[in-house]
C-alpha cells in the first residue's frame, strides 16, 4: 500500500507531536508514525520546564495541561549536612516567564494532550502501532518511509520526512549523518519508591562514595535516578535486588524503610547515558530534530524541552515552504542554524555537570559538588538564578508562531 502526505514524522515523542500540531495548524498535511500502541512508557523524561509551559500558554493548552496530575518543582537543592541544604537552582527567581517552576507530569499525559489538540485539526494524522522500517529515496533524495503495522506493510511518500525517533534513530542511521560523541563516564538507572506526606517538594541529590542519586518528587511517588559507572549494568543486576537495596539504604538512610518496595531488578530500568550531536541535521528531503539530532544526558532534565524548542523552530521556518511546495535544502539547514547555539550551550552545561559533579562522585573522589561552588551559592543565593535560567528557560527560547496560536480552551465537562 502506498500513500502520500506533505510531511511524515517518524516518532510520536514530544518533538514529533509538537511539530505535527504546529504544522497542522498551518494547514500542512502531516502524518505522525509512532511504533508503540500507546504512550505509556515508564521513566521517559517527565520534566516540563518554564519555557515549555509558556509555549503551552501560547498554544491555548495550558489550562488543560494544568488539570493533569502533576507536582511542581521550584528548587534544586543539595544537602550539605543533616539539617541544611544549598539551593543550586531556584526557578522562582526567573523573570519573564508565566510559570516559574518545573512541572513533573507523566509524559504520556503530555503527549495525549498534544494528540487531542492535533486531532482537532483536519490535516493532522497520528498512526499508533506503526513502525518505520526504512527510508524511500528518489534520485538520492529521501522521499518518504516504509512502515510495518498490524494492517500490513506500506509506504508513505512525502515532501519532507522528519526524524524524531530518538538517540537510536533509524532515520539518521540510514542517511549516514556524522555524529560527534562526547565522553560520559556514568549510566543511569530509574525506579520509583513510595512518597510520604512529609517528603520535601524539591529535586534533591544524594551522594556517597561511588554512588549518586537524584530524588524527584512525583504525584504519589518518588522517582529516583541512580547514577553509577558506565558499563556496569550487568554487574549491578548480577549482585541482585538485596545488594541494591542495601546500597540505596546506605545512600539514602531516610528511605531505608521504603527500599523493600523494590521487588526485583526488573523494576530498575537502565539508561545508557549519551551526549552527542549531528554535524549536519539534514539531507535532502529529511530533517533530524530532538534526540535524533542531539542526544542529551538526563542531567538537568532538559531533553524534552530542547526537543520541543526544536519543533517550534522547525514549524516556524518550514510551514510556509511546505504549504507552498517550495521546500529546499537551505530551508532545512536554517533549522540547525537557529538551534545549534542553544544546543551547544545546554550540552556544554551538561558536560560541566558531569565533569565536576556526577563523574567524580561515581568514581568515589567526592561526595558532593566542589566546595567553592557550595560556598558561593551559600553566601550569594542569587547565583542560583544562573542554572535556573539555563535549565528552565535556556538560550533563545522559541515562541509559537502566530498561525498556531489559539485562545485557552478547557476540557469539556
3D structure, described in words:
- The chain has 413 residues and is of the alpha+beta class.
- The chain has two domains: 2-66 and 98-182 and 274-354 and 395-404, FAD/NAD(P)-binding domain (3-Layer(bba) Sandwich); 186-229 and 231-271.
- Helix content is 33%, strand content 28%.
- The chain contains eleven helices and 20 strands.
- The strands form five sheets. Strands 1, 2, 8, 9, 10, 11, 19 and 20 form an eight-stranded mixed sheet that branches. It has a five-stranded antiparallel sheet with strand order 14-15-16-13-17.
- α1 (14-25) packs parallel to α4, α1 runs parallel beside α8 and α8 packs antiparallel against α9 (329-362).
- The longest helix has 34 residues, at 329-362.
- The protein is globular, with a radius of gyration of 22 Å.
- The chain starts with a strand and ends in a 21-residue tail after the last helix.
Note the topology:
Blueprint: E1 2-10, H1 14-25, E2 30-33, E3 47-48, H2 50-59, H3 62-66, E4 71-73, E5 75-81, E6 84-90, E7 102-104, H4 107-119, E8 124-127, E9 131-138, E10 141-149, E11 152-163, H5 170-175, E12 179-182, E13 186-194, E14 204-208, E15 211-218, E16 221-229, H6 233-239, H7 241-251, E17 269-271, E18 275-278, E19 282-283, E20 286-288, H8 303-323, H9 329-362, H10 371-379, H11 385-392
Parallel strand pairs: 1-2, 1-11, 2-8, 11-20
Antiparallel strand pairs: 3-7, 4-7, 5-6, 9-10, 10-11, 12-18, 13-16, 13-17, 14-15, 15-16, 19-20
Helix pairs in contact: 1-4, 1-8, 8-9
Amino acid at each position: 500500500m502506498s500513500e502520500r502526505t506533505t510531511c511524515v514524522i517518524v516518532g510520536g515523542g514530544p518533538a514529533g507531536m509538537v511539530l505535527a500540531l504546529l504544522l497542522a495548524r498551518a494547514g500542512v498535511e502531516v502524518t505522525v508514525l509512532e511504533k508503540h500502541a500507546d504512550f505509556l512508557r515508564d521513566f521517559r523524561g517527565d520534566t516540563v520546564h518554564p519555557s515549555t509551559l509558556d509555549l503551552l500558554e501560547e498554544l491555548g493548552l495550558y489550562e488543560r495541561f494544568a488539570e493533569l496530575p502533576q507536582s511542581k518543582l521550584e528548587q534544586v537543592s543539595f544537602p550539605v549536612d543533616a539539617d541544611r541544604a544549598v539551593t543550586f537552582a531556584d526557578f522562582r527567581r526567573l523573570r519573564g516567564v508565566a510559570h516559574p517552576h518545573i512541572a513533573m507530569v507523566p509524559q504520556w499525559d503530555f503527549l495525549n494532550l498534544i494528540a487531542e489538540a492535533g486531532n482537532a485539526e483536519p490535516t493532522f494524522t497520528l498512526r499508533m502501532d506503526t513502525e518505520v522500517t526504512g527510508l524511500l529515496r528518489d534520485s538520492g533524495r529521501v522521499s518518504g518511509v516504509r512502515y510495518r503495522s498490524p494492517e500490513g506493510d506500506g509506504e508513505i511518500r512525502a515532501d519532507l520526512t522528519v526524524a524524531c525517533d530518538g538517540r537510536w534513530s533509524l532515520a539518521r542511521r540510514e542517511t549516514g549523518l556524522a555524529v560527534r560523541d562526547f565522553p560520559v563516564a556514568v549510566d543511569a538507572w530509574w525506579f520509583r519508591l513510595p512518597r510520604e506526606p512529609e517528603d520535601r517538594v524539591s529535586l534533591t541529590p544524594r551522594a556517597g562514595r561511588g554512588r549518586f542519586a537524584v530524588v524527584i518528587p512525583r504525584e504519589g511517588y518518588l522517582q529516583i535516578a541512580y547514577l553509577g559507572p558506565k558499563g556496569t549494568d550487568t554487574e549491578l543486576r548480577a549482585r541482585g535486588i538485596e545488594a541494591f537495596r542495601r546500597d540505596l539504604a546506605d545512600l539514602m538512610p531516610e528511605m531505608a524503610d521504603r527500599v523493600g518496595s523494590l521487588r526485583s531488578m526488573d523494576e530498575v530500568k537502565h539508561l545508557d547515558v549519551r551526549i552527542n550531536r549531528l554535524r549536519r541535521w539534514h539531507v535532502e528531503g529529511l530533517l533530524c530534530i530532538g534526540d535524533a539530532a542531539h542526544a542529551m544526558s538526563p542531567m538537568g532534565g532538559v531533553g524534552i524541552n530542547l526537543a520541543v524548542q526544536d519543533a517550534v523552530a522547525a514549524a516556524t521556518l518550514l510551514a510556509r515552504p511546505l504549504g507552498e511546495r517550495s521546500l529546499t535544502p537551505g530551508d532545512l539547514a536554517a533549522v540547525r542554524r537557529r538551534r545549534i547555539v542553544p544546543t551547544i550551550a545546554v550540552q556544554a552545561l551538561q558536560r560541566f555537570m558531569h565533569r565536576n559533579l556526577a563523574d567524580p562522585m561515581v568514581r568515589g573522589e567526592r561526595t558532593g559538588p566542589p566546595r567553592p561552588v557550595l560556598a558561593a551559592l551559600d553566601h550569594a543565593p542569587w547565583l542560583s538564578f544562573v542554572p535556573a535560567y539555563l535549565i528552565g528557560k535556556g538560550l533563545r527560547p522559541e515562541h509559537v508562531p502566530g498561525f498556531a496560536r489559539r485562545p485557552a480552551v478547557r476540557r469539556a465537562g
